[in-house]
Amino acid sequence: MQSIKSVEKAIDILSCFRVESPCLTVTEITAMTGYTQSTVSRILATLEKKRCTERDPLSGKYRLGMRFHQWKGVLSQEKGIVDLARPFMEKLRDECGEEVSLYVPGEGNRICVEAVRSRYGVAKITEVGKVLPLHCGASGKVLLAHLPEKERRAFYRRGPLEKYTPNTITDPAQLEADLEKIRADGYAVSVGEREDGTYSVVAPVMGGTGGIEASLCVSGPIFRFSEEEKARIVQDTVQAARDISTTLGSTRRFEGAGTP
């Protein structure tokens, strides 16, 4: 099916607005998308007319418009993966004490769609809506591991993998070996791959069609991550991910035993 290029460009422009960059200038959007400044200005003007974006008259920066509040209201009427997963996420948080977050795959990245805060004062905090790398950290690697091989190859062709810490894997062949182990184990553990001093334990959430829907993550500071805690958190995380998968209609069993 032939795509409509102007619609694709409009979506690319809207996708520039993120938790970390809620307000942007035309110049910034031009740099982020690679489109010409005249194209960006023209599309923004159309989006503003339809109340999809708003322009601050003082700063000249754009932000998402009132139309998104309307669409948010529509979405809130539907019971999606976040609503179904949250009770299990809260239970998992109560069991382990650490932050529990849920990620879905984006275009070459992952997006946090829900987070249940840690019960500890010193904790890892992830903002809902934050866009993070797919190749780095257990949450991203679980998603990447369960994508079709064709999609993984396309991901590697996007360009060099960015190194965030000394523990980040940037060699595709080495990463593929790691992904194979994740599929075999049924979970992933990462320590300081994206942020120094933190750990993550993650299991895949599968959908009714048999594909990956999300990754369920428990994360916290490394000083609370003993071998005893690791074994317990892995078991609890895998079980919670299985429960969410069943709720979504999945009949697929995890490939690994789900124990470290």
Write the SSE topology.
Elements: H1 5-14, H2 26-33, H3 37-49, E1 53-55, E2 62-64, H4 67-76, H5 81-96, E3 99-105, E4 109-116, E5 131-133, H6 138-145, H7 149-156, H8 172-185, E6 188-191, E7 198-206, E8 212-221, H9 227-247
Antiparallel strand pairs: 1-2, 3-4, 3-8, 4-5, 6-7, 7-8
Helix pairs in contact: 1-3, 2-3, 5-9, 6-8
- Structural domains: how many: 2
CATH structural architecture of the largest domain: 2-Layer Sandwich
Number of helices: 9
Shape: globular
Remind me, CATH topology of the largest domain? Beta-Lactamase
What is the overall pLDDT average? Answer: 90
CATH superfamily of the largest domain: GAF domain
Count the E strands.
Answer: 8
> Taking Cα atoms only, what radius of gyration do you get, to the nearest Å?
20 Å
- Sheet having the most strands: 6 strands, antiparallel
H/E element sequence: HHHEEHHEEEHHHEEEH
What share of residues are in beta strands? 15-25%
Describe the protein in words:
The chain has 260 residues and is an alpha+beta fold. The chain folds into two domains: 5-71, Arc Repressor Mutant, subunit A (Orthogonal Bundle), CATH 1.10.10; 79-247, GAF domain (Beta-Lactamase). 42% of the residues lie in helices and 18% in strands. The protein contains nine helices and eight strands. It has helices at residues 5-14, 26-33, 37-49, 67-76, 81-96, 138-145, 149-156, 172-185, 227-247; strands at 53-55, 62-64, 99-105, 109-116, 131-133, 188-191, 198-206, 212-221. The strands form two sheets. A six-stranded antiparallel β-sheet has the order 5-4-3-8-7-6, sandwiched between helices. A two-stranded antiparallel sheet has the order 1-2. Strand 3 and strand 4 (109-116) form a beta hairpin. The chain is globular. 31% of the residues are buried. The model has no long low-confidence stretch (mean pLDDT 90).
